[in-house]
Amino acid sequence: MAILERITRNIDNRFWDPGSEAFPVKNRYTAGMAGQRFFKEIKENGKIFGSKCQSCKITYVPARIYCERCFERLEEWVDVGTEGTIYSFTVVYKTKSGKPKESPSIIVAVKIADGLLIHRLNGCSVEDIQIGMPVKAEFKPKAERRGGIEDIKYFKPL
Amino acid sequence: MSKRVAIVGIGYSGFRTTSADLSYREMIFEAATKCYEDAGGIHPQSIDSFVASAEDFMEGISIADEYVPDQLGAVLKPVQTIAGDSIQGLASAVMQIKTGQQSIVATSAFSKVSNLSHYEHVAAYATDPAYIRPLNEHPYFIAGLEMNRYLYETGTTREQCATVVVKNKYNALANPSAVYGAKITIDDVIGGPLLSAPLGVLDVSGHLDGAIVLLLASEDKARELNDKPIWIKGIGWATDTPNLDSRIEGLGTAVYAKLAAEKAYAMAGITTPGNEIDFAEVDDTFSYKELQHLEALRLCGPGEAGKLLELGCFAATGDLPVNVSGGSLGVGYLHEANGLQRVLELVLQLRGEAGKRQLSGVETGLAFAWRGVPTATGAAVILSNRP
Lengths: 158, 387
Known about the structure:
The structure holds two protein chains of two kinds.
Chain A (H helix, E strand, L loop, with lengths): L31 H14 L3 E5 L4 E3 L15 E4 L3 E12 L5 E13 L2 E6 L13 E6 L12 E6 L1
Antiparallel strand pairs in A: 1-2, 1-3, 4-5, 4-7, 5-6, 7-8
Chain B lengths: L4 E12 L7 H15 L10 E5 L25 E4 L3 H13 L5 E8 L7 H7 L15 H14 L3 H15 L13 H5 L3 E4 L1 E2 L8 E10 H7 L4 E10 L15 H14 L4 H4 L2 E4 L4 H10 L8 H6 L16 H5 L6 H14 L12 E7 L6 E8 L3
Parallel strand pairs in B: 2-3, 2-4, 9-10
Antiparallel strand pairs in B: 1-7, 1-8, 4-7, 5-6, 8-11, 10-11
Helix pairs in contact in B: 2-13, 5-10
């Protein structure tokens, strides 16, 4: 058992590039019962909803239909408002392909009730951002909303 | 169920940034050949069962199970594939022996990430399609959020994170298998380009190709195969919530590490890990992760890791050497094979075969692996050269 011969020159190495034919599969991801209603509230009413677990005393944001801790059904939907506080933030300098961005984006984890909404921050310079800072969701105009997380344009300081 | 299990063979191949000459199956074949030779020249026909750790997409393939058996000599044998870190695969192998189902089990892991043009797209595809993916960001923004929160909660400094990079890259200089070894300064790390601030490019471990195969045996077989069996004292794994929106505790604290380690400590009968563990190989995918993990593993108190690092406690010459191999920052990032790379270092140290970086008088070591962004899964194993 051993490899007795070796390729010793790069020009001899062969590889297979499946190119654009590699993965012609398109797939869908359904938002589900909770996601559908959560995004509908954003799209139609500009409201952010959580769902409350009575036994764990936790309000999930975004809303869900079951509690990940006690596994109970969550039936109480709560309008949690459109404001929260910065739980953490980061300044992203590279694109997904690893290239430098023309201007870095600020990504924030916004604590609303007991959940974290992950989104962009705008209207604030990097030096002024602080954990604990209050922020508010800025929605797209109603006509441009499509029923997704991008219906929120960004968060901005209060 | 009280059967003891030992590692009786180790083999590895690659540990290079690119490896166009061998297919990944040939790399595993090479590692397996070395491993079986290390275990007294055992033929794979005498091995009862095989466990491979592999994840889809990473090698330009899907349903990795179909690609497993031949390179291990496992055709026509019981084979199991674990889509997780290789310490989770190791746990499965240990259980197969502990139940008495099998006596000799091989476990493998590999990375051939150089086959991918954009690994980040694969990692980004693992984030939530409805809530996270539409932001279309580099997936390491999650590490940036974690790092900032960890620094905020513990008072750990940016400089202390950079010190992890300096230490591990320096340790790697004494490891012939480590390709990212370097003598750099804290200023080099902090002054370097930023990725997802405060996380800089040098805070991130670089990708590596490699394959690792280990052979495990029950106590009665172990000494026949190797006169230096290394005993598995405890093993555990755990997952925090996969939902970023629920990581209120998990953004700043490595909850999964705490839970995984407590399982492993309980199995090993360890109550004060700081006193009972002689050295550790701990996930350092990102600089801050090493410190966050050391605290979660109770190898120091909460918020203490940065200060102890500055005092030299985690250096190769310190009270508790951490990542003397160089860790992922120094050796390179082997994806699902990271866990076995850390286990490999423990075995070499506990056998006294670690060459220039050999620690003196070590009996018990801990390896801890995290599955990387965007996961919250970790696995811990405790090894000893005493049964």
